[in-house]
Design a protein that fits this description.
Pfam families: HTH_1, LysR_substrate. This protein is an alpha/beta fold and 305 residues long. Helix content is 42%, strand content 19%.
């Protein structure tokens, strides 16, 4: 196989812009020349990598898989050249994507605890919904993904390609503002019509709540008065006394401790979840490899937040 490095860089540029003309400008070549180089790459690997029938252009399934390899090769080559030029990458930050609630409330204490065992660990965190995060991880645009584990495999992540560490357990609790007696203003056990603060349809946590309520008569009592994709948004509305919501316990520890929020139902209504840290095994960034090896040496109970 005769590949040119510039073809790989062209392909990565095209994957980022999804436009032949924009990529050609970025790569400082004419669009016809750029198109010929992409064709040459496809001929070299004997696979169609780009779906030209869509606007913007997309990648074929084979192209999505090859993109990770292309990025990896280009990155490794650049890192090797940096070493040869005497440039240090020891303090290069790791790019992490995380679900919004994990980024806001879980990540800060967890990364602080991890650094107690591993030493300083430069990171760059971006919060996004789980679907977007999976796409970013699949295409090699991040080093690690922090997400809730999906036991029903709707995330469709191959464990061989995307290994993970279990780093936390969490319960989603139904909570309400307290009344003047310190009891739940809205109770799952006693009220016949309950204002419900819901996650939007595509939100991962919303799916967990829907699974809990799927065959339970309680769902007939709930009337949706507000929807959002973010747990912090629901928490804010609960604190305003608008209704009941299921919220991860690490988001509301202080409010429960101070009595600003109370349970709206007993423990039978809790939803247990697991939190995992994912990587792509096809990406061999030195910082990720080093972190993964170090984490494997730590006791499991140390990794758990």
């Amino acid at each position: 196989m005769n590949l040119e490095t510039k073809w790989l860089e062209d392909f990565v540029a095209l994957a980022n812009t999804r436009s032949f003309s924009a990529s050609a400008r970025q790569r400082h070549v004419t669009q016809p020349a750029f198109s010929r180089r992409i064709r040459a790459l496809e001929q070299a690997v004997d696979v169609t990598l780009v779906d030209r029938s869509t606007t913007p252009v997309g990648l074929t399934p084979e192209g999505q898989l090859f993109l990770v390899t292309a990025r990896n090769l280009v990155e490794q080559l650049n890192e090797s050249l940096s070493h040869l030029r005497g440039l240090s990458i020891a303090n290069e930050a790791l790019d992490i994507v995380a679900a919004h609630s994990l980024a806001l409330s879980f990540y800060p204490p967890w990364i602080s605890r991890l650094q107690q065992g591993l030493g300083e660990l430069p990171t760059r965190l971006v919060a996004m919904n789980v679907g977007e995060a999976i796409h970013v991880l699949r295409e090699g645009n991040c080093d690690l993904m922090l997400a809730y584990y999906d036991p029903f495999a709707t995330m469709q992540l191959d464990a061989e390609v995307f290994p993970s560490f279990s780093i936390g357990k969490v319960n989603m609790l139904p909570v309400s503002l307290p009344d003047e007696h310190g009891k739940a203003k809205f109770s799952l056990q006693h009220d016949t019509s309950i204002p419900y603060l819901s996650y939007t349809q595509g939100a991962f946590l919303g799916r967990s709540v829907r699974m809990l309520l799927k065959n339970d008569p309680l769902r007939m009592k709930l009337r949706t008065v507000y929807e959002t994709a973010m747990a912090e948004g629901l928490k804010g509305m609960v604190l305003q006394g608008v209704g009941v919501a299921w919220i991860p316990d690490f988001c509301i520890r202080e409010e429960l401790k101070s009595g600003r929020l109370v349970r709206a139902g007993d423990q039978s209504w809790d939803i247990p979840l697991e939190i995992r840290l994912y990587r792509c095994s096809m990406v061999h960034k030195p910082g990720v490899e080093r972190l993964w090896r170090q984490m494997m040496k730590l006791p499991r109970d140390f990794l758990q937040a």
